[in-house]
Amino acid sequence: MYSKKVTVQNKTGIHARPASMVVRMCNQYKEQEIHFIGNGRDTNPKNIISVLSAGLSKGTEIEVQVIGENEETVCNEIVAFIESLTD
Fold this sequence. Notes:
By secondary structure, this protein is α+β, with helices and mostly antiparallel strands. The chain is 36% helix and 25% strand. The protein has one domain: 2-Layer Sandwich (Histidine-containing Protein, Chain: A).
């Protein structure tokens, strides 16, 4: 397992549009198990309902965990994507 922390910077958090973008991106990694740990929850970022119900607002720190092949690369790509989200 490889993990890295990231803080949500998007002014409206990871709401509907950014959530769908995150889910779409994470679903590209079919061989990896991915978790977002934040707000006291373990969120499945491959499931839109899970992401939307996690309450990932601006300033929320998320630990991105990846298990599987190329863990570090996949984790860094997801973290960079979350950092790039702007509204």
